[in-house]
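Reminder to self: tokens first, then the designed residues, so the page reads top to bottom the way the pipeline ran.
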């Protein structure tokens, strides 16, 4: 009989976290959720703990510790609190795979700890690779840990590359839906609101990544994520807008052949693939019929309308702490936009201003990334005032 694989889900109350729990529930003979973490969604974390019976849960917001502790008293679930507790819990011996489904910079420290402890990583938290891709890939060289991508585009690259020699890749073709403002004239972007930007045409995701999709920062981040995951330089990663979100990405090889991976825009698919590796998990869930998608279109992105795309390429070309600066400024800007404190076009302006203001470090250490993140947040916040 197969033994169950213990899965840690960091950010279990979010969009990816909840869908990962759906996959755990779909294959109860294969998976057990042994660690769940959340930031402030105490009620949902409690509900998940009572249903999935993990060994441990962590609530990052320490003010909610008593609430979670009392609700789970007598359940056998150990309750911990605080960011450091996530970093400590993730290295427990019984954990096999860590799904990094928290949002933003908060993913960095637990991912590093999990890699050092030799865990398999199913990586949704792309910001970790954006902030410190060089450090993470360096750690992987000496660790038995591996990263399986959860992001749908990177899951597509991974599937296209199975059985291929990476030396035969000439180009990665990264598809983008184009977000809610693909067809909105540039002049109108000055007045769009957070509510407008949160209406994504194809994907139902957390607020931060939905805004990143509207600015196309998300695609810039995915270009950087692909660079680190597959060792392909930024100038051989092409972004194309594909509004139907059916082709999840493509790889062009040296002989001119192009492979693509297709599927419905449903994150259960790439999560199921990442957790099923090295095999595939059979499912009865809804299938696409290609005849329902008779028209698939591809167009070049508009770098003038979405300046964060160009900024992402610039940060990738500079290397060092540049992408860490971009990520920090973007997190501050997106949070401010979601609070209606700044306009949509200010997001890119704030990122550009911060990238130009924070000192560049060519070979950052872990501490340099921590300091860069803090400094960039401070500079970005000063732009608002
Ligand atoms: P959500 O906002 O839906 O969920 C984020 C999760 O992280 C929640 O569980 C939240 O807890 C927790 N969290 C938030 N802040 C912190 C913090 N400071 N410390 C610890 N935990 C925290 O995000 P998504 O699920 O949409 O995205 C998660 C990651 O996956 C992101 O990096 C995103 O880019 C990536 N991704 C998402 C996709 C999607 O379809 N949603 C697709 C591809 C990648 P709480 O609920 O308590 O706030
Ligand atoms: Mg994606």
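Designed residues (385 positions):
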């Amino acid at each position: 009989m197969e033994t169950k694989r213990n899965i840690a889900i960091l950010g279990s109350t979010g969009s990816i976290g909840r869908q990962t729990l759906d996959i755990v529930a779909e294959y109860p003979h294969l998976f057990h959720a042994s660690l769940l973490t959340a930031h402030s969604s105490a009620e949902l974390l409690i509900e998940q703990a009572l249903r999935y019976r993990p060994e441990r849960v962590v609530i990052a917001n320490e003010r909610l510790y008593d609430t979670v502790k009392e609700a789970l008293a007598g359940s056998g679930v150990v309750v911990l609190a605080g960011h450091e507790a996530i970093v400590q819990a993730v290295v427990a011996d019984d954990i096999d795979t860590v799904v990094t489904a928290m949002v933003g910079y908060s993913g960095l420290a637990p991912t590093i700890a999990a890699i050092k402890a030799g865990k398999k990583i199913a990586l949704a938290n792309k910001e970790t690779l954006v902030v410190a891709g060089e450090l993470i890939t360096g750690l992987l060289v000496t660790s038995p840990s591996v990263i399986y991508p959860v992001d749908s585009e990177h899951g597509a690259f991974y599937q296209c590359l199975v059985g291929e020699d990476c030396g035969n890749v000439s180009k990665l073709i990264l598809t983008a839906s184009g977000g809610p403002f693909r067809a909105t004239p540039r002049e109108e972007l000055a007045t769009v609101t957070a509510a407008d930007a949160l209406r994504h045409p194809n994907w139902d995701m957390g607020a931060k990544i939905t805004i990143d999709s509207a600015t196309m920062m998300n695609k810039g981040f995915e270009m950087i994520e692909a660079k680190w995951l597959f060792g392909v330089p930024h100038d051989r990663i092409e972004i194309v807008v594909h509004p139907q979100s059916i082709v999840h990405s493509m790889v062009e090889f040296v002989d001119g052949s192009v492979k693509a991976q297709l599927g419905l825009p449903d994150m259960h698919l790439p999560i199921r693939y990442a957790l099923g590796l090295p095999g595939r998990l059979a499912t009865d869930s809804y299938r696409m019929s290609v005849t329902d998608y008779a028209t698939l279109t591809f167009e070049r992105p508009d770098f003038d309308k979405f300046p964060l795309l160009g900024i992402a390429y610039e940060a990738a070309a500079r290397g060092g702490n540049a992408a860490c600066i971009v990520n920090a400024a973007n997190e501050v800007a997106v949070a401010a936009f979601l609070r209606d404190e700044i306009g949509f076009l200010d997001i890119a302006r704030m990122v550009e201003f911060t990238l130009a203001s924070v000192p560049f470090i060519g070979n950052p250490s872990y501490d340099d990334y921590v300091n860069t993140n803090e400094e960039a947040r401070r500079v970005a916040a000063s732009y608002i005032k």
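The chain has two domains: 5-149, 154-318.
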